[in-house]
Specification:
Chains B, D: GO terms for molecular function: CoA-transferase activity. The complex is a heterotetramer, with 2 copies of chain A (about 230 residues) and 2 copies of chain B (about 240 residues). By secondary structure, chain A is α/β, with parallel strands linked by helices. Helix content of chain A is about 10%, strand content about 30%. Chain A has helices at about 15-20, 95-100, 135-140, 205-210, and strands at about 30, 50-55, 60, 85-90, 105-110, 115, 120, 145-150, 160-165, 180, 185-190, 190-200, 215-225. Chain B is globular, with a radius of gyration of 18 Å. The chains are: A alpha/beta (about 230), B alpha/beta (about 240).
Chain lengths: ~230, ~240, ~230, ~240
């Protein structure tokens, strides 16, 4: 119960991405947000066919091209060069967001500043200073069958990111269905955080202590065991 | 996991009684005749699916396709813009006898309502039908000095569409003006079933040439020499 | 002033179509309604480039194919077989009606049961009996820069089709901008019928007598002179 | 009557001060750099067009394209979804100094508002931004148990788009993901000006392959070896 070092024993971003990738469903259509969520594709399990969507109008893109091989008309929403898998397609922005809002994606994964226990998400700005930029985040949180978040469990100074109510400006209301953190996998159901998996090394009490709202337990809590080398 | 179905009969096997079904095509252009006839075959063999609501621009022609579904007694309601045609006796007789319901929708509004369903837009404003009896009971509002009617999205449980080239990822192209409602309906149904004239591996359609991306298509079945409704009607075929 | 025989001296439908065709503008995009309005394309003046739109998703179609040469996937909104001109394109129904409602057509021409002096049009049904069918008419009357009607000036029993107020169910409100009849060309401006051209053989009084609302005159009234053989 | 313009300078010659201009592209993909630079040339030579409102997903990058327009002082307002980027100093500096206005629109709402303008739909409902500060002041309403925000169409006086193949009838195709906002903007402006990499006679593009039908395009100009924004930024080009 003691001995868990929050900063040293937590999962790295790559390990969180690996854990999220284990839930990718065969035959699914998935949008991975810019940055950290994009890493999930690298850990896609063998034997599962996943088609990736990017907001700027590509379905079925693959890995980044080798340096020097980029075609800058072929990029993703993060403006990184991509390649195409067989069966890819191009479409304009209105059709792309029809896929997003229209319920056609199986999964969207985003980063977060805060997630509230009712599924509210804050991930686009932390205050009123600087240049605001929203991109496709407010669209992506609507329509996908599952909206997941990948995030460190706590802020850099140890404060909770999973909270009773968001204090940062909202991206969407009641939209997140699952959170993959550096310590746990938590579902959002009926306005509550429900703990699904956690790191074996952290106790329930320690996990609750760094979570800003009550963690509910329904059935057995699974163990997150990340393979060596990730 | 594959989207490819071995036959039209398999492709439509799980459509239940009472389903709301979009059927692509404009008249015979782009109409998925083989999928429709497979539904009729199933109804004749099993009595199901019955009491269907069909969404199409028209209400069938001659004694094949949608007209044959209506004659067979499978259809409880049509949602369409133009049930009248030169060979529309199947619908006309049932309608005038009060045996089939009709929701009449202006053609552009029908297209936009279907597109809105596919795009997650629950309602929109259109100038079409303002001040007419087809706008009765609908909210209206002025924007920039012109009056508009509010219309709702139109969804379906199933869409039956006809593509030309298709691939195993569900990507579709369409032949000539056979495109019409097909790409919209593919977006707007919970489950979209496409018959295609040529089925290839993923990559067989150039990414720029895809009209309906595979994300909108659940089932693909190859019908390599599809029948053309207009030719069937002209040769007096009765299905 | 006397001697005009309304049934014998009026223009035929082909002649009305010829007159309407004289106003086709070079470089314009035009939708001709099913039936009578379609005839206008046959009289398109030499040297004018007109691109025809049909609701079912074709821009730039040409004449009907020879019998036996039809491809029944290539039809117009009237379900007649068509051919393509160079520069033609296909698109789906939502894009097709975006062209219609979005103000992209220069001209739409329709038939009419009645046209009112404020531009109201009734052309889709005459009563509550039978099977109603609306097609694209209610869309076509919105968005085009000019919405014209081609029609006999009077009904088969001699009653007026140009009226103060429509008595048949409306297709659109205040939408018609010009009417080509078997006797005259009449603009609709500020809620009034304004006479532009008339057959030379009919007097103003005779024309007014078969028109159900006041004809206003602004400037000179032109003469409709149809070439021999049409 | 031809839609073909002999040069990019001619193509953009009649854009006045204060115009609202949509500019296609997503970052550098599909961005009409040569048309933008022609506008900058004209502004440097004549002081016009100035006080422009630009509509684009982003707000420029590096010291070329839209960023160069902003640096030149031609832009009074940006309507975009993502002004932040790795090389967005041009916008950032003016914005933080209060010298340029910003209307921030979620990316999907931006696309749908532009499409709505092109399709004659003055307003529509979207779930996007409900409950957020970007929905403040906008009507909201519940449909089928979910809350939606009402958004208005977004029109422009001009659209500058980049096609790949074009023909003299104004038909366009796009290269790879360069499609993005270009087809939507072409529909939504009073006057659409397209630069294309290959210009051919009508019929040179197969009717099934046309992405933007010519009805949406007013001016076409060939720029046979267009520059790529990303390469210009990476090589430090300052326009």
């Amino acid at each position: 119960m003691s001995g868990f070092n929050l900063m040293e024993d937590k999962l790295s971003n790559a390990q969180i991405a690996w854990r999220a990738a284990q839930d990718l469903e065969d035959g699914s259509y998935v949008n991975l947000g810019i940055g950290f969520p994009e890493m999930i594709a690298k850990f896609q399990p063998e034997g599962r066919n996943v088609t990736y969507h990017t907001e700027n109008g590509v379905l079925g893109f693959g890995r980044a091209p080798a340096e020097g091989e980029e075609d800058w008309d072929l990029i993703n929403a993060g403006k990184k060069a991509i390649t195409l898998n067989p069966g890819a397609s191009f479409f304009h922005h209105a059709d792309s967001f029809a896929m997003v809002r229209g319920g056609h994606l199986d999964l969207a994964v985003l980063g977060a500043y805060q997630v509230a226990q009712n599924g509210d998400l804050a991930n686009w700005r932390v205050g009123s200073k600087g240049v605001p930029a929203v991109g496709g985040a407010m669209d992506l949180v609507h329509g996908a069958r599952r909206v997941a978040v990948v995030t460190d469990h706590v802020t850099k100074d140890g404060g909770p990111k999973l909270v009773e109510e968001c204090t940062f400006p909202l991206t969407g209301v009641g939209c997140v269905t699952r959170v993959y953190t550096s310590l746990a996998v938590i579902d959002i159901a009926e306005g509550r955080f429900v703990l699904r998996d956690k790191l074996p090394a952290i106790s329930l009490e320690e996990l609750q202590a760094v979570t800003g709202a009550r963690l509910h337990i329904e059935g057995e809590v699974g163990a997150i065991v990340v393979p060596e080398g990730i | 996991m594959t989207k490819v179905s071995p036959s039209v009969a398999d492709a439509i096997a799980d459509i239940p009684d009472g389903a709301q079904i979009m059927i692509g095509g404009f008249g015979g252009s782009g109409a998925p005749i083989e999928l429709i006839h497979a539904l009729i075959d199933r109804f004749r063999a099993t009595g199901s699916p019955s009491n269907l609501t069909l969404i199409n621009n028209n209400a069938g022609n001659g004694s094949i396709g949608i007209a044959a579904m209506i004659k067979a007694g499978m259809v409880g309601k049509m949602i369409c813009s133009f049930p009248r045609s030169s060979n529309a006796e199947a619908f006309n007789e049932k309608y005038l006898a009060g045996e089939i319901a009709l929701e009449l929708v202006p053609q552009g509004t029908l297209a936009e309502r279907i597109r809105a369903a596919g795009a997650g837009i629950p309602a929109f404003y259109t100038p079409t039908s303002f001040g007419t009896e087809l706008a009765e009971g609908k909210p209206s509002e002025e924007f920039d000095g012109k009056m508009y009617v509010r219309e709702r999205w139109l969804k379906a449980d199933f869409a039956l569409v006809k593509g030309h080239d298709g691939d195993e990822a569900g990507n579709l192209t369409y032949r000539l003006a056979g495109r019409n409602f097909n790409p919209l309906m593919a977006m707007a149904a919970d489950r979209t079933i496409a018959q295609v004239s040529n089925l290839g591996a993923p990559g067989s359609i150039a990414p720029e040439a895809v009209i309906t991306p595979g994300i909108f298509v659940d089932v693909v079945v190859e019908v390599s020499e599809p029948q053309q409704e207009e030719m069937l009607v002209r040769t007096g075929v009765i299905y």
